[in-house]
Amino acid sequence: MRTEAGGARAPRGRRARIWLAAGTVLVAGTGTVVALRATSDTGTAAEGPQVVHTSVDSLDLTGSAGERTLAARSTKAFRMLAVSWQDPGVRLDGTVRVRTRSSATGTWSDWQALGAGDAQPDPAERDRAGVRGGTAPLWAGPSDGVQVKADGKALPKGLTVDLVDPGKGGATTPAMDAAAYAMPGDGEETPTDQPTDHPTDPETASTPEQTPSDDPTETTPAPTDSATETPAEETPTPTVEPSQSTDAGTTAPASPTAPTSTAPPTSASPTAPGYLPSLSAAYPSCASASAVPHTMPSPLPAQPPATKVPAPPFVTRAGWGADECARDTGYPDYGHTVKAVFVHHTDTTNAYSCADSPSIVRSLYALHLHQGWRDLGYNFLVDKCGTIFEGRFGGAAMPVIGAQTYGFNTDSMGIAAIGTYTDLTGGDSKASTIVGATPSQAMVTAISRIAAWKLGMSGVSPTGTSSLTEGAKDSYGFTFGKAYTLNAVSGHRNGFATDCPGNQLYAKLDTIRSYAAGPPAGVGVTSVDSASGAVRSGTGYVTGTTATVRWSTSTPTSLLSGAEVLVDGTSVAKVAGTATSASVKLASGRHTVQVRAAHVSGKTATSAAVTVTADTTRPTYPTAPTAQLGKGTVNTAAVPVTVTWKAADDNGLRSQAATSPAAKTLTATSTSWATTAKSATATKFGLTATDLAGNTATASVTRTATLLQESSAKATGTWTKRASSSYLGGYSASSGTKNASLTWTFKGRSVAWIASRAGTSGAVQIYVDGALQTTLDLKSATTAYRQAMWTKTWSSAAQHTLKIVVVGTSGRPTVTTDGIAVLN
Length: 824
What we know:
The protein is mostly beta strands.
């Protein structure tokens, strides 16, 4: 077993050597040395509280040439594994299967086949001494046991299973503030042709005691057998870049001899906005580091060009806990500009919690270093929650050459989607048995934001193409030195013989290109609301003079820089790109309303127009409310009344309501309302009408209901007085004598005759002012008292008579009356 832990690694390859004091950096193309400052008196870029140390335990596989195994055994704690071998140029011609034991439950997983690793450095990095080949990684979660089986015709030499303990946590506070990154015009010192002091401390500089050699000594960290089991990682608070526009071009000097002073970036991230890192960041102070010259890249990379596209928020290397002492010290190699983006997947499981994403990134970092790479291979990584993680060191905005698409790493950038996105039914390789997933919308959006930012600095349209030259002599299907035209946003499979990033993610590349390039797609007004909500009238909307316009886009709002509302073609409100509504003021009358959304690239798209009528006119009552007595049960506290009216509005009514004597919600088309009135009391019947814009109008009518009992009528024939609490006033009049009558004389505008009903009740004739009105049969299957059985209403109050005459119905002649109700 071999155990590796983080330790200083000297840079490999040649760099132009420039000796500068610690805490200074030479700005590309400016001849300016920039002073740097630390945010802490104790922390450094390498050993601040945010550093999380990882360890890799390697266990040898043994057996014959065609079969190598590792028997099931207990191990130190780990969460990720991969199988590696000595020669990175040898492809694995066989099958590797692993299973792991959960440290939480003690149960063994099913066997899992591992596919070949896809991401690779270019030959200059791959062909260094000690670089190993490897399978795709497997995120197993907290584990303490492993078993491995490898079989094939000719397995590579030196097969080991590499178990990664990513450590716990990962602080999100950057060790260095924005001043630690080269920005033109901030320098206070001027470089000379002679070497300056050899820095020995990140905060101070001292004169070197001897001239440094041309070949720095590479320091190998001492192995350790210790490994600490770590619990499930807590979710760190991501260190993020601000999603404000970063215009790199504004920092360019006017001339090499007269740099223009500009303010440093406002972001708190150490790579904000991601320009050339400082010497102290490139050469961290590490306990095990040997003295190496602090050299700048040669040639110095140019600053990223100007772009309107803002940097997306991302978790920095310090945020996910990168141990900067573990990578090759110094600066990475740089290209000229990012002309193409390659989309990858990490080939790890999709059954991970986003809280584990920093651990997954650290594990990949540890595996890539274990395989002899200079640093993490990818430039950025994105998890299924859409969180972006900074990858290879060198400045997020810089054209850092990664180790991701073999032969095409120069002038390109690799974004790795954490997980597996194959479709095993659609032609993807079945070497790995990890089930692929559909990329989340958050992941697709995040990848689009990175592509828009990086390609925006290069002036390359994400929907366009770029030419890249093949830099490897042994990349299957590609010719060394030949220029290939590739989509500006390509899948890994477009530049290397692989199925990466899987069919399901590859199918999303057109969407990613569209999102990244703009203009905004699917811009449409979804509603125009007044204070009481959205109301349509035909194909348009009706509001008051204050309205809220709402819209949607199919392009994610995080890729929009802003939106504005146009009224009759004139912009009246501007909001942030993440907004989906805005309040506007409208003059009374008819208008057209549109929304114009702006993409981060500056491209715009305008919605179709909708018609909005700003209505300030109240509804009207063409027919004023009137009240009449209604049918139903009568008592002194509730005499049935029916109110009728007609409300109207030019643009339509939204609703109507009764307000007195009791509140009641009515429909917009209501023209009548059944209610009651208290006897002998003036009652106000109030109404409110509300139009589509929220304007209201009120109307009312006041009436008094009076009860006249049977005792006040003039009687003919035989009538019997009956006593019961069910009758009005405790009494009623009853007669079964044919032609017996009762006559009431009253003044009013509405009258109702009140009677009792039963199965033995007979019929009665009703006369008003001497004229027969109707013959009414009172028979009922159920007994009912105090029923208003018949009503009549006049346009105004006047004196009238109401007479009832007993018909004498055969077998059931009896009629019982409780009097009449009169409305004035």
